[in-house]
Amino acid sequence: MGKQARAIVDLSLKDLVKDLNKAYCDEWLAFYLYWYMAQTVSGRAYEDIKEMLEKLAKDELEHAGELADLITKLGDVPVANPIDLEKGANAAYLTPPKNTADVNRIIRIVAESEAGAIEVYNKLAKKTFGKDNVTYQLVTHILSEEVGHEEVFENLLER
Ligand SMILES: [Fe+2]
Ligand SMILES: [Fe+2]
Fold first, then answer.
1. Which ligand is nearest to the CA of 61?
2. Spacing, Cα 29 to ligand 1 middle (Å)
C-alpha cells in the first residue's frame, strides 16, 4: 500500500494491525482445529462431517491469507512463529474431543468457534466503518463467510 493509501486510514495503524494480527491467529487456530477434526472424525456419517470440516478449514486458511496480505499492505508483517499463534489469538484453542466419534461435540465446537469469529469481525467492521474502507471491505467479506459457517453447523445441531 502506498503513502496515500495509508494516509487515508483514519485509525491508528498500529492498533489496526494489532487487531488484524489477532484475527490472523484466530484463523490459523480455526484452520488447524477443523483440519484436525476432519482427519480424525469417525463413527456415524463421518464422511459428511469430514467433508464439511475440510471445506471450513479451507475457508479459514483463505481468511488467514487475506489478512496476511492486508497486514503486509499496511506496512507490517503477520505473526511469524507458530508458537505465538495461540498467545496472539482472541480466543483460546478449543480442544478437539478425545472421542473422535462424538460428532455432536464436534458440531458444538465449530458453532462456538464460529460465534467467536462473528463477534470479532463484527467488532472490526464497526471499528473500521467509514475509517478504513479497505479493511472494512475485507472484514465484512470474512464476516459473511463466518455467518455461513455458523449456519451450516447450527442446522446440524437442530436436527
Ligand atoms: Fe475465518
Ligand atoms: Fe469460519
1. 1
2. 10
